[in-house]
Write a structure and sequence with these properties.
6 helices; alpha+beta; Alpha-Beta Plaits; 2 domains; 35% helix
Length: 211
């Protein structure tokens, strides 16, 4: 039986056509669910209230051949990540969720870049501090560092994937849960600049409701 319109808020609906190697590895290393691989397609769905994500996961997993890496409920929001080798399966699962909840992709919130920072020639002490809690690669002293903060949080996945697709950078950390999503990327100054531009362009291309 089809569900009626939901009173939930669709905060993020973010489709990624082809996961880049470092982004896929970071999710695999930090997620409690199924391990995704580079080249797979994925979809992030973030909802409020957080418990709505359980319903979304049930719909998606029963509708198509997708697997979940993340089903996270935190203080305010719920996050679901699903992936598959086939783009069509991911799109079908996402559309099933939207249909059951009486929503469309245009009901999602538009991503807003809360802040960006570009640091050149990172000091060794700052690199060591960041390396203490990073889940990705090490940050080497002397590299350039780009930090981006985005709301809703899960859109940071699109930004990071496009950055890696367009530049030779290193993914230091990705955080896609909570009120803000954050990413830390490093490399040469020119490559990090290219990554920054690709990340900003990717987010500006996502249309949705104003927060």
């Amino acid at each position: 039986m089809r569900g009626g319109p939901s009173t939930a808020t669709l905060r993020t609906y973010a489709f990624i056509d082809r996961m880049q190697p470092q982004c896929a590895a970071h999710i695999a290393a930090t997620s409690p669910g199924d391990v995704p691989l580079a080249g797979m397609s994925e979809l992030y769905i973030e909802m409020a209230p957080g418990n709505e994500v359980f319903r979304a996961a049930d719909i998606a997993l029963k509708a198509a051949g997708v697997r979940p890496a993340l089903q996270i409920i935190e203080r305010e929001f719920g996050l679901l990540e699903i992936h598959s080798e086939q783009q069509a399966e991911v799109r079908a699962a996402g559309q099933a969720v939207l249909d059951e909840l009486g929503m469309s992709e245009s009901d999602r919130l538009r991503p807003v870049i809360a802040s960006t920072q570009f640091i050149t020639n990172v000091h060794p002490y700052q690199a060591q501090l960041l390396n203490k809690w990073r889940k990705g690669s090490m940050l080497m002293p002397g590299q350039s560092l780009f930090i981006m903060e985005v709301a809703p949080a899960a859109y940071i996945a699109i930004a990071a994937n496009e950055a890696e697709k367009h530049a030779n950078i290193t993914v230091i950390e990705l955080r896609a849960v909570g009120r803000f999503g954050r990413m830390f990327l490093s490399g040469t100054e020119s490559e990090v600049e290219s990554a920054r531009d690709a990340a900003v362009a990717a987010l500006e291309a996502v249309h949705g409701r104003e927060a």
